[in-house]
Amino acid sequence: MSFTQFGWPVTLAGMVALAGIVFLLQRLRARRRVLRLPTAGLWAQAMRDAPVRVLGGRFRYWLAYLLILAIALLLWIAAAHPQWSPSPAEGGMQRFYLDNSALLTAGGDLAAAKRALLADVRATPADRREVILGDAVGTRLLAPGESVSLLSRRLDMVSAEPRPSDFRTWMQGASTATIRYYGAWGAARAVPRSAALRYGYLADPVPGNRGIVALGVTPAASGQVGKADLLVTVAAADAPAPTMADLRWTVDGRGFTPARIEALGGGRYIARDIDAAGGVVGVTLRRGDGFTADDQAAIRVPDRRPIGIALLDGTPPAIRAAVAADPSLTVVPAAKARLVVGDARSTEGAGRPALVLSDAAAQAFTFAGPDEAERGAVATRLDTLGLAQLDAGALADALRRPVGVDVRDAPQRRVTAWRAMFAPPSPFIQSPAMPIFVSRSLHWLAGRQPWRSVVQAAGDNDPLAAPTDKNEIPPSLTDRATTLAAADTSARPAVTHGGGVWPSDLPFVLLLLTAGALLGVEWWLVQRRAIP
Question: Would you tell me how many other CB atoms lie within 10 Å of the CB of residue 506?
């Protein structure tokens, strides 16, 4: 037996103190005196001078004393929170691991794992237990010594997440202790069995599970601007993989049918030339199963429609030619343009991102935008800015000015370049770097993000979505190993309960129940006038 709140010395000292206090209280007795007073004022003075109860006299009511003392001692010992001490075979730290990965999304598996976990934690002494959540960072749900009531409230906030299990990775860094696993055998079997690893709960498998295991998007192989190809891969355990007829397609939640779908074999299908307009494309199995985490997946297709550009006064012919040759750019009136190109005077009041041609700038190329200066050195970003192939030495000799690149902070994106670089005798207009610079600078001004080629398992906040975008991408599992592990029906180890035969806090519960029962006995005796 151990006491988790006060320890043995404080508990025993409190018991002795309570016995003395209750004894002194029992020594109080009523002293009767006869007083004859003529006025009410003298009554009040007499009450102050002659207390109703005094210490002394013969000690009576031993039954009442013992009953009250027993109740007080039971409550005091319960406040010390006694627990069963483990037997030598059960000694040592017990680390409980709750795997809330996708493998526990089926039915009530997570709820059952929580119940088994709580029961085993209650049966383990508080100073020898620790509960870990199997999320990405291994969150500690219960520290040694904490009350199990805290764990119950914290588990209410835990849900299963559509991602692969991290149990194997966590075990590689786990310290020496008895590990009790609560999850699915499909994830636990990847860890070699040992005497230190035990299983408190293993979810039932979903035989023949099938699901979507990969989803990706690339620029259309046809070369069409504003189009993309979407690749989806499906798999099944011990059953034929789903066919094209088993797939349902949506874009921003609305059903659609791709114009052309090709079967590549091995459960892979590719939808050709779908619109790259920034929508969320989802793929769902028409007939699901008991494991729903892999029955759907979604990905945002980048917006690759041609960018509307207004070419204002001061736009050099070289830039006009570069824009006309780029199918991802289209010339539109200034009122409909997403960004503008021209000299400083014509772009000043446009209120849009702009490529400005000026000879008064301090540097040959200046990129400005919100928080751009904090993103690091320019040298590491030349390829993104379209200047990786620039021959700065030859350009500097032709212009008789040193050529440099600068990045600054500004409320709105803006690119400033020397006008002289886009007119003879500048070698820049004949350089392959010039149209690349024009195209990438204009795409940068438009805020175009790079292609996100695949959906990561578990999904996350979409980096291609604007901060105010309400059309969020639902989480997607897309992990072949998890889809197959959910159907794992191989031989499983025995599930064992943690702690001792009885709950470790059973003494605490029994003390409270006994104290309540004695209070009932005391009330009954008072009603029968057996004790005062």
Answer: 16
Q: pTM for this one?
A: 0.69
Residues near 143 by Cβ (< 8 Å), separated by ≥ 6? Answer: 130
3-state percent helix, strand, coil for the chain, nearest multiple of 5 = 35, 25, 45
Rounded CA-CA distance 454/451 in Å is 9
* Residue listed under structure tokens 């520290």: 143
DSSP code string of 301-355 = PPB-SPEEEEE-TT--HHHHHHHHT-TTEEE--GGG-SEEEEEHHHHTTS-S-EE
Q: Cis check for the bond before 432: say yes or no (omega within 30 of 0).
A: no
pLDDT value at position 7?
61
Handedness of CA 357, 361, 365, 367 (dihedral sign): negative
> Per residue in 122-147, pLDDT tens?
888 888 899 999 998 899 999 998 88
Residue 89, burial from CB neighbour count under 10 angstroms (0-12, 13-18, 19+): exposed
Among 90-99, 201-210, 426-435, where is mean pLDDT lowest?
90-99
Tens-place pLDDT, residues 380-397: 677 777 788 888 888 888
Distance CA 293, CA 306 (A): 36
CB 342 within 8 A of CB 312: yes
Yes or no: say if 504 and 83 are a contact pair by the CB < 8 Å rule. yes
Question: What percent of the chain has pLDDT above 90?
Answer: 47
Pairing type for strands 339-343 and 365-369 reads unpaired
Residue identified by tokens 């795409």 is 443
One-letter amino acid of 249: W
Consecutive H or E run containing 98: strand 94-98
